[in-house]
Design brief:
3% strand; mainly alpha; 272 residues; F-box domain-containing protein; F-box-like_dom_sf; single chain; FBXO28; F-box_dom
Length: 272
């Protein structure tokens, strides 16, 4: 492998296909670290991470469909079915992926960054493999614990540290583009970052920009809708549990009153 050092950067003289082949043998966490090597590696690694994120969404959708096809249609029968634990785990995994998608998608579509947390992708594919292969799964809470932890940390770090770096520039450039009907230069969004964003030439017009913004909003709306459905389902289950608890409490009160009555009767009999 030839490495060329110039005054500004380092260039690795390998075809992109070969570099991607090498990346395919590495974990996504290692690929994310390779972004720091040079601009060329950053471009290829960003593409590989984004492809991995898209592949994760596609693979999860296929797996959920396969498991759903094997479940009975009645909800009461589903809970007793042997595939229900897998379905429950997949829904939890889909929730985490939806949160990640809502966090990163608009910045990825704007070309400002890529899907940064490679470790999250590694954990996702590991959990998905367990769901597919293990005949009997552990509890969903234990299975998804690591995925919840690292995805939550990734989202918090992105919201607190990374996105504020170009949030003002993002808003300013969007407003300027709409006002002047001009082209947005994605490279201007990136400020004070250790890793540079790939240099691209953008020849999109106002209609193309509007279409991209509309598509981004559509994806966000769909993600929000799916999250609302999950929350609504959880609220319904919580309401059912509350009603069951209320019934149990009433039964306990009735038993207490019965016992109290019996004790009074017993005392009266003993006094006679």
């Amino acid at each position: 492998m030839d490495v060329t050092l110039t005054q500004d950067c380092m260039q690795i003289n390998l075809p992109e296909e070969m570099v991607l082949k090498i990346f395919g043998l590495l974990s996504y966490e290692d690929v994310a670290k390779v972004r720091l090597v040079c601009k060329q590696m950053n471009i290829i690694a960003c593409s590989h991470l984004n492809s991995g994120f898209n592949a994760a969404q596609d693979e999860l959708s296929k797996t959920i469909k396969q498991v759903k096809d094997g479940l009975p249609r009645r909800e009461s029968e589903r809970r007793k079915h042997h595939l229900y634990p897998k379905h429950d785990a997949l829904i939890g995994l889909d929730t985490r992926l939806s949160l990640l998608r809502m966090t990163y998608i608009k910045y990825i579509m704007a070309g400002m960054t890529c899907f940064i947390p490679g470790r999250v992708l590694d954990e996702f594919f590991l959990v998905l493999k367990k769901i597919k292969t293990l005949p009997q799964l552990p509890s969903t809470c234990k299975l998804l614990q690591e995925m919840r932890d690292i995805s939550s940390m990734a989202i918090e770090h992105f919201d607190d540290v990374i996105s504020p770096r170009f949030q003002k520039s993002l808003n300013a450039h969007f407003s300027l583009s709409f006002r002047n009907n001009s082209v947005i230069d994605i490279n201007d969004f990136w400020h004070e970052s250790q890793v540079e964003v790939p240099q691209k030439t953008h020849n999109s017009n106002f209609k193309k920009l509007s279409w991209k913004v509309g598509k981004c909003r559509s994806l966000q709306n769909r993600s929000t809708l799916s999250m609302k459905k999950v929350v609504s389902k959880q609220r319904a289950e919580l309401q059912q549990l509350k009603s069951m608890m209320s019934k149990k409490n009433k039964q306990v009160q009735n038993l207490k009153s019965t016992v109290s009555t019996q004790e009074k009767t017993l005392k009266e009999v003993q006094s006679q």
